């Protein structure tokens, strides 16, 4: 009996997989809401006479980028990481899920109501409809919550799975998140059309976030028991966070390689998905009501591939190598999309390859961070990586929206060649950084090429 008491709760496979399932559901609902507007672009940019909201491509790109505005320009994500390391998982998780739900409600209200007039933003940013800016406010607040929730869940998984199936657990969490993305891409537009309003899909996403917030509150009960069990097992207590420790983080070259790789790789994926539905309509001639199904193949593919590659990393290692291969595939995919070929069959084939890339890199990248950074700084480390990633998630859609606007013909059709070349360049940079990371691992002995599971 005494021996059982001294075991940590995370030593029980049933307990740690249950904890993973709960927090993964929270993020799955979050990823649904993040991408729920992506397939709605044709509806948002249609004229009021055609049942749309009359947004321009520039306004849609600005809205898409607003997700990371507060995270990037107000440094809220960085401070979220510090809060996580200082005040713990339970406080930070509840705070972040509440921000997600609150921001979602504002965005839902904005999309479902008319707002008179336009607003000209300073510094030559542009002039946008009031409705767009209110929606941006809600999306930016939601983005703060979602990104802080993401780093919190990452630390949750490291806490429960270190020494166990860490990469597999992270892969499964990503897989469930991709189910949310896939559901949004595949069903948001048909649902909105069936309900007669774009706000219907946004409202559905907000309801899911409410469930996700409750799910995380349930998890906090398990987290408290895990801490109590760890204390009873006489585990060595985690050293407290100190601001002076940040020097260790910011002078770590391997950490910066992963951060920049994250920026370049995700800049070539998530912003692309926000424009992919319209790409399928204009370049590949896919019917508008099913165009979202082709981009939806990407997250559906990673549902299987990310845990698969994570399991390989756990047992065989080769994390840096997996990141290199995934970055190469990303580059090839966007280069093919830039070619003057309009076959929808090719579009599907290339999207499958992108799914492989999207399974490879995250499955190896996220479990590699704890090998480079100590647990006491892990929240801040993930926060800085997510912060840098948010720079891409904010600025790239704005840039792509303006590029698409400039390449729109008199007939309203967009030439996507320049857009896809930009995405391919992100892939090339990702390949170079992944190679540098592998060289740094060989020099410093981080163990990125070694297995995660303790023998």
Question: How confident is the prediction overall: mean pLDDT?
Answer: 88
Tally of DSSP β-strands: 2
| Widest sheet: strand ordering | 1-2
What level of helicity do the residues show? over 70%
Low-pLDDT sequence parts: 1-5
| Order of helical and strand elements | HHHHHHHEEHHHHHHHHHHH
Largest sheet: 2 strands, antiparallel
Primary descriptors:
mainly alpha, about 75% helix
Describe it:
The chain has 455 residues and is mainly alpha-helical. It is built from 18 helices and two strands. The protein has helices at 2-5, 13-35, 41-44, 57-65, 69-73, 76-87, 89-111, 130-161, 166-195, 198-232, 246-250, 253-267, 270-282, 293-316, 319-338, 344-372, 378-406, 417-444; strands spanning 118-121, 126-129. The chain has a two-stranded antiparallel ribbon. Strand 1 and strand 2 form a beta hairpin. Helix 6 (76-87) packs antiparallel against helix 7 (89-111) and helix 6 (76-87) packs antiparallel against helix 17. The longest helix has 35 residues, at 198-232. The chain starts with a helix and ends in an 11-residue tail after the last helix. Mean pLDDT is 88; it is low at 1-5.
Task: Summarize, please.
This protein is mostly helical. It has helices spanning 2-5, 13-35, 41-44, 57-65, 69-73, 76-87, 89-111, 130-161, 166-195, 198-232, 246-250, 253-267, 270-282, 293-316, 319-338, 344-372, 378-406, 417-444; strands spanning 118-121, 126-129.
């Amino acid at each position: 009996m005494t021996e059982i008491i001294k075991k940590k709760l995370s030593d029980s496979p049933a307990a740690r997989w249950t904890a993973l399932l709960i927090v993964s559901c929270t993020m799955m609902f979050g990823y649904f809401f993040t991408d729920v507007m992506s397939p709605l672009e044709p509806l948002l940019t249609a004229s009021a006479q055609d049942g749309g909201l009359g947004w321009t491509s520039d306004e849609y790109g600005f809205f898409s980028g607003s997700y990371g505005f507060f995270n990037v320009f107000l440094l809220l994500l960085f401070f979220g990481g510090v809060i996580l390391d200082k005040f713990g998982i339970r406080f930070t998780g509840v705070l972040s899920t509440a921000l997600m739900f609150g921001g979602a409600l504002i965005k839902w209200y904005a999309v479902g109501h008319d707002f008179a007039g336009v607003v000209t933003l300073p510094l030559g940013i542009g002039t946008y409809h009031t409705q767009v800016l209110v929606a941006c406010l809600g999306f930016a607040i939601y983005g703060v919550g979602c990104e802080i929730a993401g780093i919190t869940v990452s630390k949750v998984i490291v806490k429960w799975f270190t020494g166990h199936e860490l990469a597999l657990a992270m892969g499964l969490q990503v897989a469930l998140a991709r189910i949310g993305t896939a559901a949004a891409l595949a069903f948001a537009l048909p649902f909105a059309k069936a309900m007669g309003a774009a706000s219907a899909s946004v409202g559905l996403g907000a309801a899911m976030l409410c469930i996700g917030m409750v799910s995380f509150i349930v998890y906090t009960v398990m987290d408290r028991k895990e801490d109590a069990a760890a204390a009873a097992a006489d585990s060595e207590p985690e050293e407290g966070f100190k601001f002076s420790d940040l020097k260790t983080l910011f002078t770590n070259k391997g950490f910066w390689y992963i951060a920049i790789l994250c920026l370049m790789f995700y800049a070539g994926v998530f912003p692309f998905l926000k424009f992919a539905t319209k790409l399928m309509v204009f370049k590949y001639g896919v019917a508008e009501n099913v165009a979202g199904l082709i981009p939806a193949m990407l997250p559906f593919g990673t549902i299987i591939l990310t845990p698969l590659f994570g399991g390989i990393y756990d047992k065989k290692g080769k994390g840096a190598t997996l990141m290199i291969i995934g970055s190469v595939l990303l580059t090839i995919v966007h280069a093919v999309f830039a070619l003057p070929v309009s076959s929808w069959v090719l579009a599907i084939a290339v999207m499958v390859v992108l799914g492989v890339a999207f399974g490879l890199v995250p499955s190896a990248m996220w479990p590699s961070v704890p090998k480079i950074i100590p647990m006491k700084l892990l929240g801040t480390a993930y926060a800085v990586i997510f912060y840098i990633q948010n720079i891409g998630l904010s600025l790239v859609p704005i840039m792509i929206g303006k590029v698409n606007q400039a390449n729109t013909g008199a007939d309203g059709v967009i030439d996507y060649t320049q857009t896809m070349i930009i995405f391919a360049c992100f892939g090339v940079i990702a390949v170079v950084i992944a190679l540098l990371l592998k060289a740094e691992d060989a020099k410093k002995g981080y163990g990125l090429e070694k297995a995660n599971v303790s023998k």
